[in-house]
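TEACHING EXERCISE
Course module: macromolecular assemblies
Task: Read the component lines below, then compare them to the predicted structure of the full complex.
Student: A.B.
Group: 4
Components provided:
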Amino acid sequence: MSKHDIIMAGFGGQGVMSMGTLLTYAGMIEGKNVSWIPSYGPEMRGGTANCSVVISDSPIASPLVTKPTAVIAMNLPSLDKFESWLEPGGVLIINSSMVNRKAQRDDIIVVEVPANEVAQELGSSRIANMVALGAYVTATGAVKAESVLDSLKEALPAHRHNLIPLNKEALERGGAFAQQDRSSGR
Amino acid sequence: MKKVFSRPDALKDVTMHYCPGCTHGIAHRLIAQAIDELGIRGKSVGIASVGCSVFSYKYIDVDFQQAAHGRAPAVATGIKRTNPDTVVFTYQGDGDLASIGTAELIHAAARSENISIFFINNAIYGMTGGQMAPTTLPGQVTTTSPRGRDIPSYGNPIKVSEMLATIEGAAYIERVSLHTPAAVAKARKAVVKSLRYQMEGKGFSLIEMLSTCPTNWGVSPLKAMEWLKENMLPAYPLGVFKDREKVNANE
Amino acid sequence: MSQPILMKGNEAIAEAAIRAGCRFFAGYPITPQNEIPEYMSRRLPEVGGAFVQAESEVAAINMLYGAAGAGARCMTSSSSPGISLKQEGISYMAGSELPGLIVNIVRGGPGLGTIQPAQSDYFQATKGGGHGDYRLVVYGPDTLQEAVDMVFEAFRVSDAYRNPVMILGDGVLGQMMEPVRFPPEDADVHKVEKPWATTGAGDGDTRLICSIHLEAEELNAHNMHLHEKYQAIKENETLYEEVEMEDAQLCLVAYGTTSRICRAVIEQCRSEGMKVGMIRPITLWPFPDKPISEAAKKVDAFLAVEMSLGQMVEDVRLAVNGRVPVGFFGRTGGLIPTPDEIVAALKRLVEEEGVTS
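Instructor-supplied answer key:
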């Protein structure tokens, strides 16, 4: 029985909400129980945004995540807020492009991904979220990367499907950082 | 012998509860006559409001809904949007329409809801016992303006027809009076025209009818007609304030 | 049933209403329920229905009154401050015996409060809200699937008894996404004939929708008629769920979002050997007082958990009627109780009341 409780957080505009939606959708495609809930309110505009995703083999009791098994911190305020929430042994994905410090805890698995730099290299600063998500799915195996791409096909209108190869590459590049980190013995 | 006067089919054969000299009875009859004339008894829906005319459904023989105070235009919106083929009219007094129900009135006009509003303006609250209305005249004594409506503290009366004529969505706005047979004849035409506009899909119309309230004005029925003429007509001039058909013809 | 669709709660409620035959919606913007009117403004015209953005919540509920009286299956939605404004129309609908669905995606109050989730409108929803002796049938779904199912149920009950009904959600339910399944668009939606609707009398007798009964005897008779109807609803339409109650020594009582957190609490407690179960009211009025009264013969104590300072707990105490202790734990202001807090409250209750678990 597996259960993944994820918090993903960042500035408004970093694609945090859509990253969460895609992950949730991917879980649904795989036949798992899923839920997604945003923080909502005035901070939606320009401030920090976060959402909670649960992917579980059994029915989901609470959609609210207070003890995440994984945190994706797309910026420093998100890392500052949520690092301490992680369960011991949990996975912390840090967008090192936007965060100038290391993780403080040593009882967790940390994956640093320069998501913005990678996105720039791929030619689209807007897909930093997909780079981070690639790192997350590789690090945790919560869903398959193909399922994320399948949900992207559902989410994007047909005339935007030309973006799918780019997103695939972003996921893979992000995933490589997770593998690298694991092989380095963390 | 030729019969020159009879009860319209759309008016029930019952005694009305209105006071002697009150013109609600005349207004009811005009609406019933118009319904007969247009042959729409079977597809009309009236909305009774709160005030003396709360029981208008007892007299006008069509389907009726009784609305909360001031909300008749909102209720009419719900009815008309549900069944666009029905002919929907509200019957509202000045307190209901021009005080507590101003938002509902103005926005129904702004949306150009295809409904007819029959507005009875007698410058006073009748049912609750003669309190000041939004249309009470400057200086007029009421039970809540015992020294007369004093403008600095009570504000000015609201001229509903003039105000609504400024709203783009209003198709037809006319003020008529019920104080003489000639005036009533004009009023009758206005009521028919309002319902006809609705049947033709022209949109929102309102007929303001200057009316009497001898009981709360504290005058006899006959004097009430004179009081209306002397006091209300100068403040609330009669006439057509908006007619989309005319505007279009002029363009 | 269709394939599961991942949807936001507010949108799932709106789509369910359309599938259930709702053809009239009037509403006014307020957070956190704006996705409902937005969705309705897109979808209703596609199915030949009418959407009106009203000038106020007061106007919206009175538009509902008109549409319901004209025979439409109809709905309005709002959040707490807006629902306060709708109370006039809700009372009139109850008095005139008009069916219609009111959705309240509750936020914290009083006053302008916060846009964050709360359950502090329980009193308003279940104990009247507007003036006069009337009842609203109130549903408190816990998942989006149940919210969808309750929309159908709410419309059925509303039409069957000619009474307004309410779905009492909260910001969590409105904003979260979960997979939901809908019945097909042409599914039987329990449509009933409405010979009383003011559709124009044709050649027949005229109809009247009204709530005025000036004579004492007449209004008394009307009130007694409504009362009998409410008794029948109580008898036939009460819904609740029992969770792990077979051997429970402690009984949680919670509804909606809070009850989901309580499920996590049950798991946690049972792993520690505490025999905790839950009675989850699905209808908040009628309240499931019989199962709670029955449980009071078996369990050592109850703990009501709410996102308020204690509203539903009063109904729990009435049902328990002093037989065993009834504790309470609540958070307000948009704060959501965590499983740990609830477990701690349960342990405090066990300790303070000296009950075994």
